[in-house]
Amino acid sequence: MFLQVDVGPGKNSDGLYGIQRTKTVEEKNLCIRDLGYFSLGDFKEIEERGAFYVSRLKVNVRVYEKNENMERFKDGKVKKQSVYKEIDIEAIMDRLEPGEIIELPEVYLGRDKKLRTRLLIYKLTEEQTQKRLMMRTQQEKKKGITYKERTKFLKILITY
Q1: Could you read off the pLDDT tens digit of each residue along the chain, which spans 160 residues?
Q2: Is this structure's pTM higher than 0.85?
Q3: Residue 159: beta bridge partners?
Q4: Residue 102 bridge partners (DSSP)
């Protein structure tokens, strides 16, 4: 059962709307953020409310995993910068077959690595890739911008 579905003008800010909607989330709700416009703080709050989320991952969000080989000082204390190591999403994508999905069950998002979540990485099929490139080319011409290659190909979902 859907409690709320909103479709609005493309001019409205999805990020601001998401912040407003997070305040209404209840236990066991599922929040779907389809375009990747989110705040990591929103997801933290959704978790704290006992609810769940699915979203695309913004291309500029860094993804980390716990480092099993942490560096230590001479006194035995762990070097803080070695607790996590960044995951190379593009290297993972290169190893996948078109249409294949891989799950990373425990990753940490953002510079502060405060959001522990699950990540699904999907490699587009050849047909999907061609369709996306065609759409991106049209958008680039219409808006007078150029997308980075990374933005054109990455399709990553984060879920909790």
Answers
A1: 556 666 777 666 666 666 677 888 899 999 887 666 678 888 889 999 999 989 888 778 889 999 999 999 999 899 988 999 999 988 898 899 999 999 999 999 988 877 899 999 988 888 888 887 888 788 888 888 777 666 655 555 445 4
A2: no
A3: 54, 118
A4: 121
